[in-house]
From TrEMBL:
This is Probable membrane transporter protein. It is a multi-pass membrane protein. Belongs to the 4-toluene sulfonate uptake permease (TSUP) (TC 2.A.102) family. The keyword Transmembrane applies. Pfam families: TauE. It comes from Corynebacterium gerontici. InterPro entries: TM_pro_TauE-like, TSUP. Its main location: membrane. GO terms for cellular component: plasma membrane. It is found in: Cell membrane. The keyword Cytoplasm does not apply. The chain crosses the membrane at residues 29-50, 77-97, 103-120, 136-163, 229-250. It comes from the Bacteria. Keywords: Cell membrane, Membrane, Transmembrane, Transmembrane helix, Transport.
Amino acid sequence: MELSVGAWATLIAGAGVAGWIDAVIGGGGLVLIPLLLAVCPGLAPAAALATNKVAGFSGTTSAALRLAKRLPPPRGFMLRFLPLTALASGGGALIASSLDRNVMRPAIIALLLLVGMIVARKPGFGSGPGTTRPRLALLVAVAIALYDGAFGPGAGMFLLLAFSTWLGADLLHAAPMAKAVNAATNFGALCVFIIEGQVWWSLGLVLAVANICGAQLGARTVLRGGDRLLRIALLVMVVVMSAVLALQQWG
């Protein structure tokens, strides 16, 4: 499939914006996947998801490294969380085709609205320190990883909430942990897509560079904005994701 100069420019810009969104709060796929399908109408949905994962994995990994350099995760976190969540995401990608998205969307919308109400009604949410339940945090992270491989939107945001709630971290210190696990979930799903031959590599690699640029800017934004920025971004993403999913379901 050949793309015009305008199409390349649109997708590269979209990948940069998606990288920024993913680094700040998560949900960049809501930008890049529809853009891929709109600009490349002959592209199969599975190929769009796979190509998005190339960009998402690259950008999220770069953001995770930048944030972890300034705010290192707890000792042992990577060894406990990353392998299991990568495997769970790969499993989610394997069963993705068998899931009914018309059933999943309303459930995710309800969960998003619940999350939004909790964050809005509790001004101190995510300010840490809070309850520390590492086993529960790991179980929830694996569930989110499975969701990311199978469906995906907002996995990074859900991870941020989970780690802030059950690892006793404020939102800022939960961010590098969430990005690291999100990178692992992207990797797990991407491996499945590669095996299935779904990735459009020439496009995916170009978009990965743009996504990394956006993610680096997003990581800098997070470090400068702190907990207040992440709280606002979280509430905005809840509204945006709910609206997008509702439009896809009932629009």
